[in-house]
Amino acid sequence: MLKRLSINVKVFLAPAVITLLMLAVLLVSNLALRRQQDAFLAVVGGSLTTSTATTRLLLTVAELQSAVLRFSQLQQRVGRDDPVLLNLRRSILERYTAAEELFNSVKKTSGPGEADAVSNITDFLTIHRAVAKRILDSDPSNAATVSTLMAHYQQLQSYIVELASRSMESAQASEARTRAWIATFLRYLLFASALAVLFAIALTFYVGRAISKPLTHIVSLMSTIASGNSSVEVPGTERRDEIGAMARGVEAFATVTKDLRDREQSLMESRGLAEAASQHKSQFLANMSHELRTPLNSVLGFTEMLSDGIYGELPDKAKLALAKVEKNGRHLLGLINDILDLSKIEAGEFTLLVDEYSLPDVVQNVAASTESLARAKGLQLSCVVPRSMPQARGDQRRLTQILINLVGNAIKFTDEGRVEIEASCKRSDFEIRVRDTGPGIAPADQVRIFKEFQQVDDSSTRRKGGSGLGLAISRKMAEAHGGSISVESEVGKGSTFTVRIPVRVNDAVGVVA
Amino acid sequence: MKRILMVEDTEDNRHIVRDLLGASGYELLEATDGAQGVAMASQHKPDLILMDIQLPVLDGYEATRRIKSDPALQHIPIIAVTSFALSGDEVKTREAGCDGYVAKPFSPRQLLATIKEFIG
User: Fold this and answer.
1) In a 3-state reduction of DSSP, which class is residue A491?
2) Which residues of chain A have pLDDT under 50?
3) What is the pTM for the complete model shown?
4) What is the ipTM of this complex?
């Protein structure tokens, strides 16, 4: 039954019980003190009073005796109606009354041990009074009566003295009894207090243990669970008190911990698989890159040499046909490069080769590379680069790639007019604008064109050529530099593509996910 | 006549360079793997070496390193011919000791121009 009590109740009960014990001890001590007080009062009220009264009685009786003797002597000398005699007679009678009253009060305060003495005094007081009365009433009294009175007086005196001493004894006995009682009581009290203290200690221990034992056990369980062993038995989950609640909590904790560890385990396995897959992909990319470029190398290489006349001068028609072969070969190469670049970017393999370069040089290069294309279409290609540009740092090759893509697009999509390349430096960024007088791009399409495989008009893909990858890659590469590509255009008013890249790029910016 | 050693395992590529250099007045030596390349370099001491990177037996980087660590052969310019498949290839090329590089697929015209740059 004790086990079923909640910790709350136990923790309250223990001190409550101890407090009650203390109260009990106090109460008993209080009773003892009162008893002592009563005993003392009894002594004071009783025996002491008796003693004092008895002494006064003795005096009063002595006075009475001498008064009666004086009366008897006076009686011999004066007449019956002598006023002095009559006065004396009256005063003697008054004194007897007073003595009786005094004795009554003595009787009241005397104890049972003094009963004999009290009855004796009662008798002899009566006798003494009777004899004294005879003397008072007789005409003069005779000597026999006086000596009888004397004898009675002496007897009375001795009984009064006896009473006094009995009272004293009684008081002393009462004192001794109280002392003994208190001594015994104190002994019992000490014993009871010792028991109470032991009981209190035991109770405290019990309650303490009732709490700390399951707590310590649960705490050690929790550290076991935390250190990895999730399959432990948690005891006490069936208890209905606070320890039970905590035990159930710990059980839940163990379950959650186990779940987390399992999940962590499977996550690590997945990660391992993902990493392996990524490695595989990288290897695949490397292989494909080599495999695809090798035959193309042959195609373009031989085609070029044929064109250059290494195998002898060719007829014009053959040269024309060869030019087409070369053009298609280059187109194929462009497509392969784009796809491989995109794959690299997606595989996280794309890094920048950061080095010092000169922007004017890059722009000149691009212009030179695309000049023939522009001329072939009858377009004017112009280039505006300020002479003093800060020294740049970044991936020159990629920047060139981006610009060639933009300029190439401009030329491709513009049928008449011109293409302008304008470079400038704004604070810590380069700004290169590629402006054309082409058909322009509607706002709705301006977002689409940067997506992979999208051109403004899907049908134009076949006419204009191109894979549609260029802008997507260019943007990603610009972003890898910490820059951006944006477009401003209106249908019918041409387009302006702006490349913004930092003048100096840290290696840290490099990798694009 | 200037002598050029070509270390290349693909016959088509060798064919192109053979025809190209032949028509341009260079003598061509050919090796088909990295080890052979090192041996022939040491034997013939060419004026320039064209080193393909993806080679059997010994890859282009290692072959380059070995040639460059040979005091008798250190001075020979080595041009790497590589398809730059993996990131870090450019760095590796430089670190191995190559004096220049040409990207695959290469334009024969450009290759010729690069060779002329190094040995005239």
Assistant:
1) coil
2) 459-465, 510-513
3) 0.47
4) 0.85
